[in-house]
Amino acid sequence: MTIVESLPPRPLSAKELMDLNRSDALELASPIEEEGDASGVIVATDSWVKGLVFDEDGGGWSVVETVSLSDNERIDGLQTCEEAILAFRGESVSDDE
Predict the structure, then answer these.
(1) Distance between the two ends of the chain, CA-based, in angstroms?
(2) Which partner from 4, 33, 60, 97 sits 20 to 30 angstroms from 50, CA to CA?
């Protein structure tokens, strides 16, 4: 089962994000939203970072970006995935500042 297949068919609650962070499969699960349920999540292992988006119109969770950490630093992967999530939503990093 992939990470996307394991997610519920709705945005994630704070408790669900904490549970993902405690799982053995992931090293990091972080929302891009500051408040409320998370419909944009960055997840990471020691080998990759993925940007996930919940799209109600598209029928659920999708991977919008995957960055391999073999050639990249984790921070670069996190930033790339956040930018991909925002671009998917039609937002930009500067919109949040």
Answers:
(1) 36
(2) 97
Residue 12 DSSP symbol? B
Amino acid at 71: D
Quick: pLDDT tens for 64-84.
999 999 888 999 999 999 999
pLDDT of residue 59: 80
Return the higher-pLDDT residue of 1 and 19: 19
For the chain, the domain total comes to 1
What gap in Å lies between CA 67 and CA 80, rounded to an integer? 8
0.85 surpassed by pTM: yes
Full domain range(s) for residue 58: 1-87
Residue 92 lies in a domain: no
